[in-house]
Amino acid sequence: MISSARRSNYRVTLAVLSVGVASFALVQSLTIPVLPRIQDELGTDPTTVTWVVTAYLVSASIFTPVAGRLGDAIGKERVLVAALAALSVGCVVAALAPNIGVMIAARVVQGVGGGVIPLSFGIIRDEFPEPKIAGAISFTSALLGAGGGLGTVVAGPLVNTFGYAWLFWLPAIVTGVAAVAAWLLVPESPVRTPGRIPLLPTLLFAGWLTALLIGISEGSREGWGSALVVGLVVAAVVVFAGWVVVEQRATVPFIDLRMMRLPAVWTANLVAFLVGVGMYASFAFTPRLLQTDVDVAGYGFGATVTEAGLLMLPASAGTFVMGLVSAQLARIRGAKPVVVIGCVVAAVGLAAIGLVHEQPWQTAVASGLFGLGLGAVFASLASLVVAAVPPEQTGVASGMNANIRTIGGAVGSAVMATIVTGHLGRGGEPHESAYTAGFLFLGAALLVAALVALAIPSMSSRELEDALEAEPEPEHVLAD
After folding, report:
1. Which parts of 163-260 fold into alpha helices (H)?
2. How far is 149 from 86, CA to CA, in rounded Å?
3. Partner residues linked to 250 by β-bridges
4. Within 97-129, where are the H helices?
5. Which compartment or compartments is the protein found in (predicted)?
6. Please, are residues 106 and 89 in contact by the beta-carbon 8 Å criterion?
7. How much is the pLDDT for 449?
8. CA nearest 288: which of 160, 420, 163?
9. At 250, phi and psi to the nearest 5?
10. Nearest to 145 by CA among 323, 314, 310
11. pLDDT tens profile 186-213
């Protein structure tokens, strides 16, 4: 049992966790609008510079559940400090990078910071008073969603005023301070999963995930039928199958697949995947739509990076505001209805961006609508996942949920790129109808997420824990 004295510091703990989560979310999206500037500064080509995003995506996808699993096993506070320190060091290296190779390596190190997401949720569940858990998770989730959108807003002014290196100096300073604060102020959580981290299941997990994400990322550039893409996807499928077999037989699994089969867990993960499809692609392609020169393509506003960011500011504001009130809404109506309604509202916002963009204010309103829906989903979905598993599996479960959302983002961005770049018109710009079709696709993904959310069972955490314990034990014939 955690003493009341330790729990009395939960507000300080929340402040530290909030800084870490917000910093990671900013680093995740800051580089996307200014890739051409990074390309020019480092003297590389358009294909190579995209690895600034791909390397980070792959690294974060791997280390998010790995850090969650490590935190569950050896202590969440110490792994949180390590994740924040890695994010800070990676940002320093990126700010000083003399060439694209060093920049890509730095982005891989930054991806380790993805562990702050599951570790923060786990610490909140372990350390906070019971009545404060849902609100704290909602607030942290709101920061995660709002920070991702805010990165596209501040990137332009930051680069224009201080230079592109400050895309990394600023989060390096903030996360460095957060790492020290976490070390000094965040108490070590007593909830642990006994046993060591299994090497073989972890390596197989990293293998299939890396092959899948690189294959998806390269699909829109190399062609979906290219030997490289097909080979990577086939390799991902084969390694994934091997990983499932090993996990089921391992004495100490990396991911408890019995837990992943629980109705409350797999439905929440599928919702997260579909939300990722819409969210990440919209962050990447809305600025492109806004920056299109109307004199060349016949649509768009010819906005600068800064102007496009300002038009997307309502999305970040809506995400944050709705995240703050979602806990109260969930307390009144239940978390599941909030997720369902949030998905529908976000879908309407995405469809509106694609269908109605003759005036800047129309895009701003649609963006705000999307943000409101996204904030409701982010805040309430995280609470559902945390409540669905035993305390000692909070880290790995929430890590996998965030990871699956990232995979959805990779899929959505690749499909969106294929739709948009497959229909080029005047001046080499995509046809306006291509953007319309793309955003309608993203909206449809959110509508499907709403339908899936209806299937999330309304069960208490005790009922879900009993369901996990009732699952048959796997054959313990393969020790790592």
Report:
1. 166-185, 199-222, 227-249, 257-260
2. 23
3. 478
4. 100-111, 116-127
5. Cell membrane
6. no
7. 95
8. 420
9. -70, 140
10. 323
11. 877 766 665 567 788 889 988 998 898 8
